[in-house]
């Protein structure tokens, strides 16, 4: 890759967009499901979580890529963990200081970004062998694609489970049985199993459209 | 004692790491194709949780919490190293996993052959870090409680992964829509298992 | 330099640790003030919510200043109460309720906040207890007859979403206003019933459907915490 390549070269754009389809970290590579599904009951925390993961993945890839020629082999994993953990602590402190309400909802799940396999996965698979800028783009793309899945899941769960989006009422009050209507929220949607089932359906749809991803 | 039993039952069935918090999903999905390997990984996770949660509990209590350093003297009463907890917890976990790996390799080579390949995976298993973070957030009052919580969480995780592996072995013979094969159907089955586990939440336990 | 040598590895690790630790300490130090402020404002907001004084926080330009001003306007006094119901001066706002409730009953010093809205006085008492999964807490405001509840607010660490977690919603909390904590001259607190299990009267409220354990825990928390104050209530009633 030449030094003068522009930021928006075809290659870089592909690095950013590929995770959204063929290389989606969740639906194709099965990475990083752990730490985030629990925050998809409402849209707002899901978006904050998605952004946090994007930032951490991008910068962790960037920093490791900068250091890639200096890291001693024997402590490679530890160095990576330390860099990631430091970034996560920064994100956690900033959330606590500026969006306190959301940070309370995310609780321990911010800390769990450290063990989010996407981050380590991208560092090992990409950042260790590439220049800082492409690594940053690769990290941001993967984080954003991951955030997108979170947002889709959260959208379904908040709309069907609470009848709201971003806390704003979408299903009118008068539709509800309580007010003499016919509608009732789907209580299952706010419970953990719903996230898994919605994710299963998303994968189903994704693979039906993109047939080459079907497992043998 | 009642309290300990309560925490144990709760961490296995009700606040199950996989079904209630989705923790450890990556290895859960990757290593659940065969019951025997699932059992090996599950056992390794139980083992590591049993050690890391109490160790991190002590570190949190005597080093990190606000005012935890007061045993060093009056002037340390206001020190709050809480912001370091993520990094210390993950370092302790990585370190313990290494030590456990070496000990197991040296003394019980048979066990090492069974668990060995899984041990390095565990350092980045979210369930392990998650258990330490939950231990911190829930403010357990004694080491015994923290240990029981760690052990119970591990057993719960083991139950989950062995259960899904057994289902996946049988599912190989079923007609699943092609696009749903593998990952998709596994998620949906996990969701159904989670619903089944939710019926345990009716258990009434008194926890102080 | 040889990347696999011991010296290099150790030096590298040491430098990394120092850099990371320094960066984190600086960040934590710089962000400490807004973080503490958030906690303080949240507490003030809870206290004000229990006396129903928070209405247009979403309209306020700056939430923090709005809450601070309202708090200054309405909360005129805060003091501690000892086991004999005597008033003791002290920092009621920053005291650690959890630590205090662990002490034997005789040694406890518990806070009371007084709200004064144009001569209408309410006494706000913090409550704390154990829910189904973790801690639950809140504030109960009493009228100045010390036997009628004016309002209440609750929050929780990790109750089941959609079930026990609903104790944090106004629909549940509103039921408490107007309930009596004394029955036939004896302290009885407000009972939280299993949803729909008995007809409601002045002394109980309806629990949350499917959240029976959390609902009962709220009842127990209110009973346990308010019973620490019965001597204080008696003294105040005599003075009235």
Care to give the gist of this entry?
The complex is a heterotrimer of chains A (216), B (208) and C (240). In chain B, 70% of the residues lie in helices and 0% in strands.
Kindly describe this structure.
- The complex is a heterotrimer of chains A (216), B (208) and C (240).
- Chain A is built from 7 helices and 2 strands; from the N terminus they run H-H-H-H-H-H-E-E-H.
- Chain A has helices at 10-17, 43-67, 76-98, 100-106, 117-125, 132-162, 192-209, and strands spanning 164-165, 168-169.
- Chain B has one domain.
- Helix content of chain B is 70%, strand content 0%.
- Chain C has a domain at 76-239.
- Helix content of chain C is 39%, strand content 23%.
- Chain C contains 6 helices and 10 strands, in the order H-H-E-E-H-E-E-E-E-H-E-E-E-E-H-H.
- Chain C has helices at residues 6-50, 63-74, 97-102, 170-174, 212-227, 230-239; strands at residues 75-81, 87-88, 110-117, 120-130, 135-143, 149-156, 182-183, 186-187, 191-193, 204-206.
- Chains in contact: A-B, A-C, B-C.
- At the A-C interface, helix 3 of A face helix 1 of C.
Assembly context of the chains = heterotrimer
Compute the number of structural domains of chain B.
1
Helix % of chain B is over 70%
Q: What is the number of helical segments of chain B per DSSP (H or I, 4+ residues)?
A: 10
Largest beta sheet: strand ordering of chain C: 2-1-3-4-5-6
Query: Mean of the pLDDT scores of chain B?
Result: 82
Distance between the termini of chain B: 11 Å
The biggest beta sheet of chain B reads: none
Rounded Rg of chain B: 19 Å
Helix-strand string of chain C = HHEEHEEEEHEEEEHH
The pLDDT mean of chain C sits at: 84
Overall structural class of chain C, as computed from helix and strand content, comes to alpha+beta
State the total count of DSSP E strands of chain C: 10
Q: State the secondary-structure class of chain B.
A: mainly alpha
**Uncertain segments of chain C of ≥5 residues (pLDDT<50)?**
none
Query: Which parts of chain B are unreliable, with pLDDT below 50 for 5 consecutive residues or more?
Result: none
Could you tell me the strand content of chain B as a percent range? under 5%
Number of helices, counting only DSSP H or I runs of 4 residues or more of chain C:
6
